[in-house]
Amino acid sequence: MYQQHIPVGPDAGKAPTSKIDRTQLLDPAQYWPDATKCPDWPLLTGTMRYDGERGQRGAERRLETIGQYLNRAPGELRSPTAEEREEAFAKMFRRTGSNWHALGILNLSPLGMMVEAEAGLIVEACHLRGYLRKLQVAADHAVEAARRAKQAEARRTLEDYRATAPAEIEEFRSLAEAVARHQQRLDDERAFDRSRALRQHVETLHSAAVQAAHTLGLGVPDAPDFL
What we know:
- It is rod-shaped, with a radius of gyration of 44 Å.
- The strands form two sheets. The chain has a two-stranded parallel ribbon with strand order 1-2. A two-stranded antiparallel ribbon has the order 3-4.
- Helix 2 (55-70) packs antiparallel against helix 4.
- Helix content is 58%, strand content 4%.
- The chain is built from five helices and four strands, in the order E-H-H-E-H-E-E-H-H.
- It folds into two domains: 18-44 and 51-144, no CATH class; 175-216.
- The protein is mainly alpha-helical and 227 residues long.
């Protein structure tokens, strides 16, 4: 049987160069405009249990796992445009129901049973991004609070110096003469003690030298005039 050969075009079968990141189909800012109001992750209800890693590291790993599943098609990831979000949303969700009311998300439910599992992962990804956003906001607030506290402490230090230092500097200058007299007295006392010690030592040395001269039958060395 004759079959007409149809040449394959240069782009036929070629993998797309980019694809939308389906973990970003729902925007956390839409459901939690105030980032601090996003529920913590994991959100456990009823008899649900979670034994995995928590906090930022656990959330990032869970988001990565979900992303590997939702974005398993070939291509480099990129953020979806507003139009792409709407198109993907229409294939996955309806704006009725309250399947995820525990998260504070209302008027949202899967379009049907065929997409229910992936819809749940997309919502979880939204929650994870909202939770990470909440952690980042808290970290930013902590950094800002620390910066303000440091500046406030610096202002107090400067104000204390300006309020206290002039009077103390003036007092210091007024005491300079008395300090000099006190220092002179200390120096005199140290000089007196050293002089007495030297006199006693020289006296001991001279006495020993006199005794040695007598033993040798030599002339006795003269004593210093201060003995």
